[in-house]
Amino acid sequence: MKFTKMHGIGNDYVYVNCLEEAVDRPEETAKFVSDRHFGVGSDGLILIRPSQKADFEMAMYNADGSRGEMCGNGIRCVAKYVYDYGLTDKTRIQVETLAGIKELDLTVENGKVSLVKVNMGAPELSPEKIPVLAQAEQAVNLPLEVDGIMYQMTCVSMGNPHCVIFMKEDVRELDLEKIGPSFENHPRFPRRVNTEFVNVIDRHTLRMRVWERGSGETLACGTGACAVAVAGILNDKTEHEAAVHLLGGNLHIAWEGGDSPVYMTGPATAVFDGEVILPEDIK
Ligand SMILES: N[C@@H](CCC[C@H](N)C(=O)O)C(=O)O
């Protein structure tokens, strides 16, 4: 199977051009390629497909083979892929995802995409739609007990579910391998959840680490950074534009509130093209 390894600030995926390549068993393929010892090594698999409704479709799979509705870092890389590999010459494109059609603006330098601004759509705040079990109109600053410790959570869907935890403790010191799975599989989240642990640096700057549903700790999460910026505004901790610092780099997020869309701007990077031998049972 031909592929391209790409990343958005260290959140790395194996990208397959399904206009040319058929992937019949995406869940098993995602598990296989993501393995950092026996596969290619990645946070998951992203398929670039033709679309009836938009310029292209993005289908994303986590490292455990589960499907994610949306991927912020992934969609910027899809934009880079389709432009740099000549599948389009447009610098404004639409990409269909399970979370709807997203519009992307591409910045091109020396013939290659360097930066992508994505209209991520309006955040979903109603608990049933996120989904999170909560007796409130919005799950903002609600208590959550995890492994006997009380946290305050703010939940946001950016097409996929996020639980944002603001902390006084330095997030760089957290043992995410230990606490992450307990959040991901907590009974309050019927479809599991992505969890962001956040320090507010100032009203325009946030630091976060993420434990992703289906992939564990990753160096960055684009939808997670959007959820964090939205949660910062809802809790009156930040202004309408913020720089979100993640382990792999920074994203710029802007949201005017209410039904207005969240804008995410960040880089996209191609690392190498390759060809992987799939085991017989997942061909
Ligand atoms: N890393 C992604 C999000 C990928 C999907 C997520 N793990 C889920 O299952 O919802 C991003 O950059 O947004």
Outline the biggest β-sheet: 18 strands, mixed
What is the CATH superfamily of the largest domain? Diaminopimelate Epimerase, Chain A, domain 1
Q: Give the H and E element order.
A: EEHEEEHEEEEEEHEEEHEEEE
How many E strands?
A: 18
* CATH classification, class level of the largest domain: Alpha Beta
| Radius of gyration of CA atoms, rounded to a whole number | 18 Å
Low-confidence stretches: none
Helices, by number, come to 4
- What small molecules does this complex bind? the ligand N[C@@H](CCC[C@H](N)C(=O)O)C(=O)O
Query: If classified by CATH, what would the architecture of the largest domain be?
Result: Roll
Class from secondary-structure proportions: alpha+beta
Strand content: 35-45%
For the terminal residues, how far apart are their CA atoms? 9 Å
CATH topology of the largest domain: Diaminopimelate Epimerase, Chain A, domain 1
* Mean residue pLDDT: 98
| Helical coverage, percent range | 10-25%
Q: Which shape, going by the Cα principal axes?
A: globular
Give the total of domains.
2
Protein name: Diaminopimelate epimerase
Enzyme class: isomerase
Keywords: Isomerase
EC number: 5.1.1.7
Describe the 3D structure.
The protein has 283 residues and is of the alpha+beta class. It has 2 domains: 2-119 and 267-282, Diaminopimelate Epimerase, Chain A, domain 1 (Roll); 142-260, Roll (Diaminopimelate Epimerase, Chain A, domain 1). Helix content is 16%, strand content 42%. The chain is built from 4 helices and 18 strands. It has helices spanning 26-34, 72-84, 176-184, 222-234, and strands at residues 2-8, 11-17, 44-49, 56-62, 67-68, 92-97, 100-109, 112-119, 142-146, 149-157, 161-166, 194-202, 205-212, 216-218, 241-246, 249-255, 262-267, 269-275. It has an 18-stranded mixed beta sheet that branches. Strand 12 and strand 13 form a beta hairpin. The longest helix has 13 residues, at 72-84. The protein starts with a strand and ends in an 8-residue tail after the last strand. 44% of the residues are buried. The model has no long low-confidence stretch (mean pLDDT 98). It binds ligand LBFN2T5F. The ligand N[C@@H](CCC[C@H](N)C(=O)O)C(=O)O is lined by residues 11, 62, 68, 71-74, 160, 194, 212-215, 218, 221-224.
